[in-house]
Amino acid sequence: MPGGPAPFPLRVDVGSSDMSQSGTNLDDSRLSIDSRRERERERDAPSSIEADGESRLSTDDSDVEAMGKLDVALLAKALKGATSGQRAKENDDMRRTAIVCAQGFMAAGTDDEGFIRARFRWFKQAKGWVIFASVASMGAIHRFGITDQSWLQAYLPDNQFVAAVTQDPEAAYAPAGAVFALGLCHAGAASKSEHSPLPQLLSYLQMATQTQSAPMLHATGLSMGLVSMGTHDITLFDDLWPVTLSADPDTGMGSALGCGLLMLGSVSKAQTEAGQPLQERLDMMLNQARDTEHERVARSCAVGLAFACYECRQDALPLIKTLENERRPQMREGAAWARALAFAGSGDLDQLRLLLRLGMNDSDDNVRRAAFIGVALLLADPEETVKALALSTRSYSPHIRSGAALGIGLACAGTGNRRALTLLRDLEGSLESYVVQSSLMAQALVLQLQPSPELPEDEKEAEEEEEKKGKKGKNGKKKKQKSRKERKQDKEDQIEKQKAEQSKPLPETPIYAAEFRKRLVDMLVNTRRNRDPLALFGARMALGLINASGGNVSFQLKTRLGFNSALGMVSACLFGQGWFWHPMMLTLCLGFSPMAFLPTDGSLSLSKRTQLACSAPKASYSYPAHYAERVKKKKAEVRNVKLSLRERSGTQEQDDMLIFIRRAAAHTAEAYKAEVALMETETQAPGDEGAQAEDDTTGVHTLRGPCRMLPHQADATTWAEDSPVYPVYKNRLTGIVVVTHKEGQE
């Protein structure tokens, strides 16, 4: 990785050397979509794919030199693994979903499909919702790519969609994933703009209604909600609402969430005379949540009502109390989200007390988890959230601990908060696998953008030796299988060792980041030691979150100016719904905020003449080192010793001559090195040494925009005195900065 900042836009280089060849010899008979349609899509795809799975993606060499790279080597390592049986198939689906979500986070906003295209056949082997998530992850990769959609045309439904789905219902999952990707790509964009996909989505809704395809109806409802978020469009609501009343819970779930996103923040407006139609629609959602027999539909309607309460404060209290008094736990879960979103970012202590009381007293585990995640949304402050949730991390309820972990991770994302990391490290040793999963993902969020130096070599060697001793005995032979009593004792010793490690004080954040990455490597590479699928799911997701967008973004609940980020709040709530439907976790990319310095002139084109003086050490903001797979050292070749003196006598002279030549060569090499060092000393300029010492003493180096700019790096950066341009707003070093020439000309 380059030591300095990487320029934007975030386009990354994924070389073929980082790509493993897993999935290149897979059987095409297992493809989940009709082979004829797949051949047409491969032919019409924007980037051609070779038969052996290698990517032909071209990258601009000038960008590759200075930009970051995606750490896909470790993610590629996680692709390995064979499963069989029904339970193993479920675990394999979870593994595949985690991998595609992780690569979606890792390449979010970069337009880089190299990981997918290099393993196209592996992705095509997925079936059902897994292939849905695989295609949907491209929406995260092409986030904000609203002008050019050629990358998605090969996957979107065409004129033959109705006939294909009628013949094979499984053929709907990939096009449905493409529709969801379209919503992720356009989420938060103006729905009335010329590039709005709403007319296109309405046509897909008609296709899905004609075929009654559950995946397509589900994806269309979600995408329409994401694209039209907060527009309060009654006509669009009426188009979506009949899907919510269908008998299939999957279709009703997506449509209900879409209706809620469309009505984002509408409760205050609904209480006016002009907002009477809005109030009628909210009552329809409330009645559907009460009457439906499907829990997923009831939960989605309740969460949709929570979206309608966003930033409505006191106006939302009647609806919140109505939801809290309902008998269905799904509606009480919606009440927790509604209170958190209604007072999002306010830090209201009274509402915080009520939210914590709901989480502690309710008998339903999902309500508890939602309430403690909601604390992060209500406070939206790293220090205050850690104070409020510190005691909850030691609760008797594992679901409270899980929710508290995710809440801390969402609120402290990208900060490297040491107290938060201490609490989350303790939760990593929990007995419940889903608490470990939440802890891993939360730690990855907190450690976003944090530097990660390499561990000292002596520690690596000691760990390698300990690993070897565990595999072999003193005589070099493999150990015998241990008895049950010995295995139990080993497990107790491991728990004691883990407790002793947790009792140690937390190291510095960069060192802990390196240790955490090493633990992820151990979990993903040595999967036999970590058989629990939920913990492995969390490790794979953590890998994508800690390397989000190639290490150039962090999740944010607030904007740089301190206002609430609607996309951040909504994506955090939808991420919490990933507990019930894993592909929903992809929506967390909506809250990613790039950490960059983007100088622009009056015409809003990038200015490359800016010069900044940074006094922070380069190691404090450099990219972390990539995963490098250990190369097994080949054993030295052992030659057979000839005991016969008659046979050895003929080669004795040759051996003596060879020894003499080697000694002479070694002596000559040492003399040559000494001579070169002497020549360099004699020819060195008098001022060179002083200039180098001065640079080391001051520690100030020059940065040129556009570049990556971390928060702690910006505190140690100022505008250089000899910079030809300067900012219109003084001392602004993050985000889009309008600059002007010193002569007064823009």
UniProtKB/TrEMBL annotation:
The UniProt record lists the 26S proteasome regulatory subunit RPN2 C-terminal domain at 610-745
Extract the Pfam families matched here: PC_rep, RPN2_C
Q: Which InterPro entries match?
A: ARM-like (IPR011989), ARM-type_fold (IPR016024), Proteasome/cyclosome_rpt (IPR002015), RPN2_C (IPR040623)
GO cellular component labels: nucleus; proteasome regulatory particle, base subcomplex; proteasome storage granule
One of the GO BP terms on file:
proteasome-mediated ubiquitin-dependent protein catabolic process
Alphabetized UniProt keyword annotations: Proteasome, Repeat
Bias (Acidic residues) ranges? 455-466
The residue ranges flagged as biased composition, category Basic and acidic residues, are: 27-45, 487-502
List all Basic residues biased stretches: 470-486
- The transmembrane segments are none
Superkingdom of this protein's organism: Eukaryota
Q: Where is this region: Disordered?
A: 1-62, 451-508
According to UniProt, the name of this protein is 26S proteasome regulatory subunit RPN2 C-terminal domain-containing protein
- Species in which this protein is naturally found: Kipferlia bialata
